[in-house]
Every structure is written in C-alpha cells, then in structure tokens.
Amino acid sequence: MKKKLEVDKKQELDRNNEPDNGSMAHDMEEMELLGKQMDRLRTNEELKEDDKQPDPVQYKEKDK
What we know:
Layout: H1 2-11, H2 28-39, H3 44-49
C-alpha cells in the first residue's frame, strides 16, 4: 500500500508548475492523470462550504 501512495504522489503534478501557454498532455499516461485530477475537483457548493470563492461565471445569459 505504501508503494502505491509513493507512485501516486510521484505522478501528481506540482501545484506551482506553470505549463507553457497552450501546452497539451504529452502522452496517454499524462492524459489519464489529468482526467483523475478533474474527477477530484470540488463543486462550487463544496468550495463555499469551506469558505472559498468558486470560479466566477464566465458566461451570462444577458450577454447574448
């Protein structure tokens, strides 16, 4: 079990990592990792419960 945790931590992207503008996943392994990260993203309601600001609305009906 400990080895699995080490592998998971090793594969996670560094939070301070700033990718090149317009960069894409380089291989299928990286694509799978990014998909897993997206699965774990919290909803706006979950963020509000933690007193955090969710992403702002980027599209409004009145702006049509």
